[in-house]
Amino acid sequence: MKKSQKRSNCPISCSLDIFGDKWSLLIIRDMLFFQKSTYGDFLKSSEGIATNILASRLLGLEENKLIEKLEHPDSKAKVLYKLTPKAIDLLPIILEIHLWADKYFTIPADIKAMIKEAKKDKEAFVKMMTKELKKQVDTEKSSS
Amino acid sequence: MKKSQKRSNCPISCSLDIFGDKWSLLIIRDMLFFQKSTYGDFLKSSEGIATNILASRLLGLEENKLIEKLEHPDSKAKVLYKLTPKAIDLLPIILEIHLWADKYFTIPADIKAMIKEAKKDKEAFVKMMTKELKKQVDTEKSSS
DNA sequence: TAAGTTTGCTTGCATATTGCAAGTGTAAAG
DNA sequence: CTTTACACTTGCAATATGCAAGCAAACTTA
After folding, report:
1. Mean pLDDT of chain B
2. Whose CB has fewer CB within 10 Å in chain A, the N or C terminal residue?
3. Which contacts of A136-141 are long-range, i.e. CB under 8 A and separated by 24 or more positions?
């Protein structure tokens, strides 16, 4: 994939240059909400990403510092993909997408429950989940 | 453009099926923040969308009920594109993208000012702007 | 230790999407 | 009645996507 240059300095445009496609945010979603962390995990997601596309998206996310590739504690054959704080900070965006979707689509019950919870106090929900996620990041960092 | 079918029933996935590309949200941005409303307006945006892509995105947005095509009051040669409430409800998402971009990129000063204003009280900012935008929608509706 | 198996990719190729430039039809302006 | 404005459409080359197969390194099993 060619190194994408900025189309403009509009913040929306710059952001879309990074995650404005059909797959990148799904990978982030899998990591944020479903604790997925390996190549195989992402391939298994119900949207069915093609393996070459997954590889190219992971590379793009890494180049944009949204994820990091690390040694997997279980095996050298595995790779551990980990969210950076920059990616964790996408949570408010992803939450708002959930809320929008909840208003205009039919949402699976389990996710609907999460959304309902989040709606009670968005700021608190984001803050708590962010703290939780960033704690994991730091824990792993300090134990390396 | 082929009628896109849902990849899964995940709210993020469904949402990305609609606006998960490099252009759709920029059109929405132009309408939300810069009062653009015609084909020519969108073509002029600094990102430089190709005319055929613009046509296909406008069609997609219309199919997904994010915009409506109306007669332009000034001229029959023009077409007036108008946001639906469904699109106006994307504002929280677009605001959060702004906030994220503000944290990780260098943002133009004028937009930075808007972001600063919005950050003071997100809910209030969204509510006020939404109200303003939806008022316009209703005004035009009642005068047709 | 040899023979699978798992894992994380890469490669090849068909198809779809994008981007660029030029063209078209209708409406308005001069 | 000619020119310009406006909203597209068309043709085509370049790029991206999707699918299936292949592959090497690490791991498991016997």
Report:
1. 94
2. C
3. A137/A82, A137/A83, A137/A84, A137/A85, A137/A88, A140/A70, A140/A82
Taking all residues of chain A, what is their mean pLDDT, rounded to a whole number?
94
Q: Dump pLDDT digits (tens) for A51-80.
A: 999 999 999 999 999 999 999 999 999 999
**CA triple A113-B10-B86, angle to 5 deg:** 85
Cα–Cα distance for residue pair A121/A111, rounded to 1 Å: 16
Count how many residues are written for chain A.
144
Q: CA B68, CA B61: separation in Å to the nearest integer?
A: 8
Nearest-CB residue to A29 (from B12, B86, B96): B12
With beta carbons less than 8 A apart as the criterion, state whether A116 and A62 touch.
no
DSSP string, A14-51: HHHHHH-SSSHHHHHHHHHHH---SHHHHHTSTT---H
pLDDT (tens digit, 9 = 90+) per residue, B60-98?
999 999 999 999 999 999 999 999 999 999 999 999 999
Give the three-state DSSP class for B118. Answer: helix
Per CB-CB distance under 8 Å, the chain A contacts of B47 are 7-8, 10, 13
The amino acid that residue A96 corresponds to is: E
- What pLDDT score was predicted for residue A135? 86
Which residue reads 């119900």 in tokens? A46
pTM: 0.94
Strand D atom within 7 Å of A48 CB: yes
